[in-house]
Write a structure and sequence with these properties.
Chain B: GO terms for molecular function: calcium ion binding. The complex is a heterodimer of chains A (about 140) and B (about 575). Chain A is built from three helices and five strands. Chain A has helices spanning about 30-50, 100-115, 130-144, and strands at about 1-10, 15-25, 60, 70-80, 85-90. The longest helix of chain A has 22 residues, at about 30-50. In chain B, helix 2 runs parallel beside helix 6 (about 85-95) and helix 9 crosses helix 12. Chain B is mainly α and about 575 residues long. Classes of the chains: A alpha+beta (about 140), B mainly alpha (about 575).
Chain lengths: ~140, ~575
Amino acid sequence: MERIALLSPVCSPHLQNYPLYIRSVPTENELKFHYTVHTSLDVVDEKISAMGKALVDQRELYLGLLYPTEDYKVYGYVTNSKVKFVMVVDSSNTALRDNEIRSMFRKLHNSYTDIMCNPFYNPGDCIHSRAFDNMVTSMMMQVC
Amino acid sequence: MRYGTPAEIHGAKCQIPHTALDKNSFKRADEGDKQQETKSPSMSPIGSPPASPSSYQRVPLSYGYSKSRSGHEQKHGASYESRHSAHQQDGSAVGNYGAKSAHGQLSRSLSAEKEPQDSSSNYSDDPWRITEEQRDYYLNQFKTLQPDLNSFISGTVAKNFFTKSKLPIPELSHIWELSDVDCDGALTLAEFCAAFHLIVARKNGYPLPDKLPETLLPDYLQTASLKPIHDSALFDSYSESLPVSQQTRDFNRTELETVCEDPTNSEPLILFDVMTSVIEPKTSVEEVSDKSALTQAANSDDKQALKISTTAKTIPKEFQHLAVKTVAHETNTLKARPRSRSYSSTSIEDAMKKGEEPPTPPPRPQKSHSRASSLDLNKIFQQNTQAVRSGWLPPPPALPPRPFVSQVPLVANTEPATQPKSSYVDFRVPEQTEQVSEIELHPQMNRVPPQTEESSPTKKEILLTQPPTKPIRRKFRPENQMLENQELSPTISVTSSLPAVKSHHPVQKQSSKQKRAIQTAIRKNKEANAVLARLNSELQQQLKEVHKERIALETQLEQLRPVTVL
């Protein structure tokens, strides 16, 4: 099981993180996933502020267990423009290594920059790019 | 000519191979399956190279000739809007050659519905292929944005430019995604051509592909523009651009793959060969005109030149293109084809509206437009084109209704009112008809005022004031009178109220005017008949309902009556 969420702060500095893109492979527990993502944002913000100068941290968030009952790991990634990538992975998927997570975030970031290159895309819009979807799908298929 | 026409078709139609993929494959599969025997004979007219399609293995080899390649490049590319189509086509073609109905079946199963387009759209008809005239047009557009052809068009500039096409932003965004291959936020000439072509195709109704068709790849476009026989270059581009999914599509081309050891490297080769092979069998399978075109194309080394020449001839007038294409492919193509062609020409011109002259600015819907088949429309357009040449192209369907609407109310106004008086008892019950007709009259009259200024108001007034009398007279003036009245009044009203709509322009020339007047009167009468028939049905329904109510009431009465009587 894996879920990927792309969140971006609104242009205003208020921490209104709203999702630009959310994707999950198994579609059950969507709500819980959304909740998880939003709760993890707090940790992400915490890390951002803690990092200070270091703006980009590829692997920003690693939760072994958010709750004892919740068996998943949440990974985070932040770009220079404060766009946050959150990935939720089942802990049962032990095959996923840190490097793989990093590479996945890198791919996400690259695809995101490609989207930004599109003049028809306004930063802050929800992402409806088919290419992006395909990339994410292929990535998730590799993991799941 | 086949190649020539397809190119033209591309230009005019911008058929989108995405769907054409399946269609092509489907068609080919059908063709292949059905005409496996004919394939070989059909192959012969294509020319010497494809002369021996007996074994598909031979086909690729035979297609290895550079001639066919150069000539087929664009076609191949076009046909392969995505390798999908190519593969499928190849598979089907190959299957045909190699009597591999399995592939055909595969392609058939894969292919979608649009058979008619398939029949008409072969490789050469690939809507994803850019014709020379289209390329020139794109080039000119590029120049307006960026004089330096080797430089880029920035994203903002391109965005403003493409926004003029009035496509929805998400689609434009997708088109950009497809065309900006290097994702640098700027468009090279090739990328711009691809994007423009996609926009034109989308305007013509073709769905956007998920992947950039091969013929729209920048590498392909650049190489194609150079008219090269850079097989290697093409192959490289093909191989590079080959998406992962292509390999999945290779199931159709398993045979081909067997021939080539390295699928990725050999794909381009195979593609090329297949393309040629596919194209040729397809072309052969197609109409005789196609065959002739093929032979011509196959014969000449400069197939592109042929195409260009053919396209060049027709460039000045896309209608000719359309006409040629329709002639060539009418049998195969559906009516949608000519429509799409006309749309494509119009889309190029109007859709973009970049303030430049489109390559061919003819009024599109005239000749090939399926809707313009009616006499009225033709007449209208002739009249319109006579009078209005400013490039204002009235939407075909809009014209006739207006005059008719203007006429109908007049007729309707006259009809119901005139009924009670005259002895010509129409289907209507006088009272009801009067009421209904008057009801209709009013709404119609409401419509009429904006349209008919002169005569209709007067008529309406008369009708309103003296509904039962004068209208009756009006209506039942004998047909001639009606005709005359209708001729004059509608013409006058129409001409006066609808200056733009010059459907009844010929008030000036008497003989032609009379003829037209008569025809218009006939039309009006037909419209009136239709309206009256509708009225009749409505009234009859009302009558039935009333009858039912009456029966119900009577039964109630009977139930009550015995009590009282007894």
